[in-house]
Amino acid sequence: MKQSALALLTGALFAVGLGVSGMTEPSRVIGFLDIAGDWDPSLAFVMVGAISVHFLAYRVLRWQQRAAAARAPRFPLLADRVSLPTRTGVDARLLGGAALFGAGWGLAGYCPGPALVSLATGSGVVLAFVLAMAAGMAVEHLATVTTNRRHPRDPGREGR
After folding, report:
1. Nearest partner of 131 among 104, 154, 153, judged by Cα
2. Under a CB-based contact definition with an 8 Å cutoff, are residues 99 and 91 in contact?
3. How far is Cα 95 from Cα 64, in angstroms, rounded to an integer?
4. How far apart are CA 58 and CA 52, in angstroms?
5. Hey, which bits of the chain come out as E strands?
6. Contacts of 29 (CB under 8 A, 6+ apart)
7. CA 11, CA 39: separation in Å to the nearest integer?
């Protein structure tokens, strides 16, 4: 229960942050990507802030793993362990996914987080984007299951 409540609180905080920073407005994203025109650097500042928080949190998690025997404070507080990525290789699947993500981001001005937050506006355009995004996720899931190959996000299991 605590874990679900914290997840809800964290998601709400993320949504508020996206709204306050203006990152739910596709014009901000398009403006950031328009480096030859009327460039808007505000997204860069949001990215630097997010990367800084992640950098510090990642360092704390790595420190905690090394200091576990020394009875250091335990992170995360509401889970038994943290699953850090183990894959470091760049493959065609990663590059293809990044290209599709970038194309969708550049054409629509939305990525998954801001799109979900923007659903609250009731916009048909946002709803269409989110439905298309969900359909893409479903196709990827079905392709992974039907080919019975290891899924990159879950390397220890076959399919899902």
Report:
1. 104
2. no
3. 32
4. 10
5. 150-151, 154-158
6. 23, 43, 105, 106, 109, 110, 111, 114
7. 29
The pTM (predicted TM-score) of the whole model is 0.71
| Residue 62 one-letter amino acid | R
The type of residue at 150 is R
Q: What angle do CA 126, 48, 154 make, to 5 degrees?
A: 65
Token pair recorded at residue 124: 């048909």
Question: What is the pLDDT, as a whole number, of residue 158?
Answer: 45
Which residue's entry shows tokens 């990367």? Answer: 51
Per residue in 75-111, pLDDT (tens digit) is 666 677 677 778 888 999 889 989 988 998 888 899 8
Structure tokens at 51: 């990367």
3-state secondary structure at position 147? helix
